[in-house]
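Our preliminary data section would be incomplete without showing what the modeling component actually yields. Below, a chain of 93 amino acids is followed by its predicted structure, encoded as tokens that our downstream tools consume directly.
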Amino acid sequence: MQIKHNDILIASIGEALSSAQVAQFLKSNEINVPLEDLTFEYSQGEALEARRTAYLVESDPLFMEWQYDQTDASKQAWQDKVAEIKARYPFPA
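Predicted structure:
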């Protein structure tokens, strides 16, 4: 995972971190840049593993709920969560 600010590399970390972990990393290294000003870039493997973990924790329960009740609202909630995870952990170009 690479953390960039204005296309300048700030840090290169060997694994994908959550926003909270990145914030803690920046604080502990005395880097005073707001999270919303940063760009995160992941390797294919890092993005894949981060997605896998997020799917298990965040979207799989919504999928199971949709399988149970079969409503359009629960299906949409699951699909929205999957799209959010893919946007959060994009594959490299």
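The chain is about 55% helix and 15% strand. The mean pLDDT is 92. Preliminary results of this kind motivate Aim 1 of the renewal.
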